[in-house]
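Review form for a predicted model. The reviewer records the input and the model, then writes brief findings.
Reviewer: anonymous (R2)
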Amino acid sequence: MSGPAAVVYRTGESYAQRDVFGQTLLELVEEDPRVVVLDGDLANSTRSEIVAKARPDRFFMMGIAEQNMAGVAAGMATLGLIPWCVSFACFIANRDLDQLRVVVAQPRLNVKLAGGYSGLLTGKSGKTHQDVSDIATLRAMPNMIVIAPADAVEVAAAMRAANAHDGPVYVRLTRDASPTIFGPDYRFEIGRAVIVREGNDVTIISTGVQTIRALEAADLLAAEGIGAHVLHVPTVKPLDTDAVAAAAQRTGRVVTAEDHTIIGGLGAAVAETLGELAPTPMRRVGIRDTFGESAPNDELLEKYGLTPRHVAEAAREVLRAGDQERGAASRGRP
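Model under review:
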């Protein structure tokens, strides 16, 4: 259940989630003797190299062998350790999927998964290294928690919550720097959505870094006199269904936004929830059943319809549809 609206800061400061991830991972290693780090030969890119350099005794380079990495992590977990498996999202959610299902998720072992370079914005690494369906894949796996932080502050807080949770957790991370929206007083809780902007005309529900673009979309709408209510969903599973339903009922119109396919991701999870608890007209902003490609970030966001302008237009569209329905009803039309 969502708590009071979080204070949103716009300091102009930007940080890469992967940098904060590496530093927080080192802090966890120093604080908790059970924490060990396993990397799939991507330590420089994922920033787990921060641990490798400072605490080589707690770092294990597993090579390009993600299936084996999952098996080793499972074995370590049975001995009371807390292994963090680190790689690109495309490898964490796909290459070792059978091992994750059988030796991690089914026995509900205490293994943490960090998927870097998620979504479209992967530094021109190519569509083979992009994963726009990792949330859908791991959300469908029993016993798996799925977290997509919005900014650097939430990355650190979510990692600490994941480390404290007894069971498998997937943390979705982005590559490039993005603005900070939460302050030092922000408190993350697994399974809790956060209101980041109050409004009464249309609800925007988003996850991950897309929440930053949702807030920018709300600014565009505010300039037109439209009040957007923005709900940030850092934990896609378990979903804060009460908060989603309440946010939908507040405005009667919903837009979801995510840097992920609309099939099986946040938009699908919200649609499932509203279908059961609070049927509401909605539009989904996300990637439309296609793979990505290599290009500069702004061009990718534009081509795949993820910019603040696209989110704002989806909000206008659902508002227009509602106005048309009310107009037809007032004229006695079916």
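Findings: The longest strand covers residues 254-261.
Further findings: Confidence is low (pLDDT under 50) at residues 327-331.
Recommendation: see findings above.
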